[in-house]
Each structure stands twice: as C-alpha cells, then as structure tokens.
Design a protein that fits this description.
single chain; 2,3-Dihydroxybiphenyl 1,2-Dioxygenase, domain 1; 2 domains; Glyas_Bleomycin-R_OHBP_Dase; VOC_core; Oxidoreductase
Length: 315
C-alpha cells in the first residue's frame, strides 16, 4: 500500500453519465465541448481529453432514465484498492462487487461501491496510460477533467463519509448568512479540490469541470460555446475558493458542465481552510464579470433528482 501520501486516493479519473437523448449528448461533447471518442459499442461511448493520460474522462450511456452512473477515482496500486475495499466492507458500506480486473478501456484493477447517498463510486489502479499530447497555445479544448461537485440534502454526512473512508481533506467551505454552510471543497491531492459537496434539495450531479490550458484558451473556449448557441448558466468569472476561473454551460440532457483553469495548488504544511461568505460578490466572482448568482443559476445547479441511487449501472 502507498505510504508516501496522506490520501487513500490519487486523483479523479472519470465521470459517467446515463442520458435519454444519447445522440445529442455525443454531438455536444465531441462537436462542441472538445472531447474525443476512444471506444463505443453503440449504446455506450467513452470520451477522452486530448491532454490527459486517462483512458477516458467522460462515459455516455443510453438509458431511458437520466442518472450519474458513477464517479471514478484512482488509487496508487492494487494493494490500496484491496485495503480500501476491505475497510469499506468491514464498516458496512455496500460493495457492488469485490475488487477484480476491470473490463472497461485501459483495464486495471478495481471495484465499485455505493456511497452514503447511493451514488456508485469506482476505485481503481493499474489502468493503462493513454497516449496523450500537449495541448498547444490557442487550443480551446479540455486538457483534463478537473473536479466534480455533488448535490445532497445531507452534506455534513457526505463530507464525513469521504473524510472517514478516504482521507479527503477540507480545503474551504462556502456559507451564506441565511442558509448556513452550503459547499465543502475536498481534496485528495495538492489540488484545491477534486470533489465538492453542495447542499441541495436532492441527490444529483451539481457539475463536472474541465481544465483548459490557460486563461486565453479558457476564454476562447467560453466564446466558442457562446457562438455555438450553447446555453450559458454562469460566468465567465473567477471564484475565490480555489482561485479558478469558471464558465458553466448546460449539456443537452440538463447537466451543468464547467470550463475552468488555474485551480489552486495547496501546500499541505501551511494551508488552513477558510469559511467564505457566499453573499459577498467577490467570493463567487473575484473579477465581477459573471452574471449574478440568482435562482436560475441555482436551479440549474440542483439538476434533476438522480434516478440511479443504490442501483449499479449495467456497464
């Protein structure tokens, strides 16, 4: 087992979505968002980011129900995978199956389980590295998957779950004077967050975020989406928590997707979490360039209730 890191998990691998309008979803992610098809069987398609060594960063599956199929995280080695699976099972967490060879692109060794909210989470190691390339100056396509934000009506419990079982560390918290604590930013490496937990009316995907090469590429990508008529929800701007840029758009099945860049890298020895007041305009957007955070933005971020809780995806 890896003993050089304080974290059980190394990084975010991919986010998998099931959607009713499969064709439009694929057209969006390949024709507009800038991802590349690496494998498909007609009803399931795996999409890679050109700058990422991950085999794929998004998986799209055709289904009558819209759901978050799973979120996948990497582990250092097979021993860590086995150790985590053993600890989860011993603590009463429901495993979908015991660790085994994975049958998805890149193979590897891993397992899936249900978190406290019923989402399917995958932990894997030894996945083959994909041949990738350096994203060039001016290319407005994702370098990699940056982070995922998850909605839950029980955020304190969910934050405690990921801290207890995987050692996720709190980087910052957003609060509102009337609504209390609203979002917890969690890290599993030096990046400010690879996961955030948001208070919402139901369990659902809040958004997935994709890192672009730099500010210029981020702005070019934002403009490309606007020119293509993709519905913008919020941005462009720069958050205070994480110090990253943001432009949020709606995919054809109503999931929020973000272009970002320059997410903060933290020093483990000196960083202390902040409690940030979300009602202060500079907390949500340091630049002051984004549209106001209002009921429309919040509603899109809540998403539809996830129809796949405590039911593992078929693939």
């Amino acid at each position: 087992m890896n003993t050089t890191s304080p974290f059980s998990l190394t990084h975010l691998r991919h986010v998998d979505l099931a959607v009713p309008d499969y064709r439009k979803q694929l057209e969006f992610y390949t024709g507009h968002w800038g991802l590349s098809v690496v494998a498909t069987d007609g009803d399931v398609t795996y999409l890679a980011a050109e700058g990422s060594p991950e085999q794929y960063v998004v998986r799209i599956r055709k289904d009558s129900d819209k759901r978050l199929d799973l979120v996948s995280y990497g582990a250092a080695d097979a021993a860590t995978v086995d150790s985590v699976a053993h600890r989860l099972a011993a603590d009463g967490v429901a495993l979908v199956a015991d660790p085994d060879v994975l049958q998805t692109p890149g193979g590897g060794y891993g397992f899936r389980f249900f978190d406290n909210d019923g989402r399917t989470i995958e932990i894997s190691s030894d996945v083959a590295v994909r041949r990738h390339r350096k994203i060039e100056e001016g290319e407005s396509i994702p370098v990699k998957l940056s982070h995922v934000v998850l909605n839950t009506p029980n955020p304190e419990e969910t934050v405690a779950f990921y801290n207890k079982h995987f050692g996720f560390k709190l980087s910052d918290t957003l609060m509102h004077p009337r609504m209390g604590h609203m979002m917890w930013f969690l890290r599993t490496n030096a990046q400010h967050h690879s996961m955030a937990i948001a208070r919402g009316p139901h369990v659902a995907l809040h958004h997935a975020s994709f890192e672009l090469r730099g500010i210029d590429e981020y702005m070019r990508g934002t403009g490309k989406m606007l020119r293509a008529g993709v519905e913008k929800i919020w941005g462009p701007g720069r958050h205070m928590a994480g110090n990253n840029t943001f432009s949020y758009f709606l995919d054809p099945n109503g999931n929020t997707m973000e272009y970002t860049t320059e997410l903060e890298t933290l020093d483990e020895d000196t960083w202390h979490p902040h409690l940030l007041d979300f009602s202060a305009p500079e907390v949500s957007d340091q630049w002051g360039t984004a549209n106001a955070m209002n009921e429309f933005v919040a509603k899109q971020s809540f998403n539809d209730p996830d129809k796949g809780l405590f039911v593992a995806p078929p693939v």
